[in-house]
Amino acid sequence: MLTSWSVIMLERRLAAKKAKSVFFEERNTIDIYIEDTAIGYRKIYKCILSRLLGENFLINDIFPLGGKSAVLCSWENDENKRNRPRIYIVDGDIDLLSGIRVCQDGLYTLPYYCIENLFICERSIIDILVEEDPEKEHDELYGLLDFEGWERANEKLLFDLFITYSIVKKHAPHFTNVNYQVSKLVNNNRGELDPEKVKRRISDLDRAVLDKISTDELKEEKEKIMLNIKDDMRIKKYISGKDYLLPLIITRMKSIVNTKISNLNFKNRISNKCYLGDLQDISKSILY
């Protein structure tokens, strides 16, 4: 829990980061603030948001603030003394499983777990496979990828795991959660989870939760989450693209074509191609 002094220091750091946008006003007609500070993400967001908003806004720079709480804090304290359009973008995260997604004036929560979920786009992935393979044609690579088969092999296991992660976050937040490496849960080079490894992982998570609640309560909470999402069971929406889906699908791609494509190179290339239809509502959250 943040102390009052910590809050003050956080606000000062955020104010300093936000102040940078003043020096780029001629390069942008909208100020866009995001969580991700990792290398390459400003370029990725610029590409995606230019595709979405480029007809109405000049976008050359994106301003990372560092973490969801930082973006939310900055949005809550926004005073816009310069009278400029701006928007604060945060990940949907595991809260989506509980039906929580907040979009208000100035704040846009992604309809996915994180921005990487956008890249789980079958058509765009196949396009990149075609570009990477000097011999195989589109139809052959489509069959080898078998995107639907990959989804079927992983879907139930991923939902069982992430529903448990959601409950662990609530009752045992100290326990290693989504950051657990997916490479420890696979059984081949096809990007498919090992059912037994996932079962053991869920058992470990359940034990951590059962120190706080009863078996019946745990079962009830899992059933409640499943009921909440039963009409929209898409791994692309609810499962972490960064930590799970992307590593799995890239592993599968590399089992099909001989490529040394880096994760960042893949993200940059697919951000120019991937489907953006689920983000068309972003303009409604722009604050003027």
Span from first to last CA?
A: 33 Å
Q: What string, H for helix and E for strand, traces the elements in order?
A: HEHEHEEHHHHHHHH
Helix content: 40-55%
Q: Choose one word for the global shape.
A: globular
Radius of gyration: 20 Å
Number of helices: 11
* Classification by helices and strands: mainly alpha
Which runs of at least 5 residues are low in confidence (pLDDT < 50)? none
Largest sheet, in brief, is:
4 strands, parallel
Arithmetic mean pLDDT: 93
* β-sheet strand percentage: under 5%
Counted up, domains total 2
Attribute tags:
single chain, 288 residues, mainly alpha, 2 domains, four-stranded parallel β-sheet, 4 strands, globular
Characterise this structure.
With 288 residues, the protein is mostly helical. It has two domains: 123 residues, no CATH class; 150 residues, no CATH class. The chain contains eleven helices and four strands, in the order αβαβαββαααααααα. It has a four-stranded parallel sheet, with helices on one face. Helix 2 links the parallel strand 1 and strand 2. Helix 4 crosses helix 5 and helix 6 packs parallel to helix 7. The longest helix is centred in the middle third of the chain and has 25 residues. It is globular. The protein starts with a helix and ends in an 18-residue tail after the last helix. The model has no long low-confidence stretch (mean pLDDT 93).
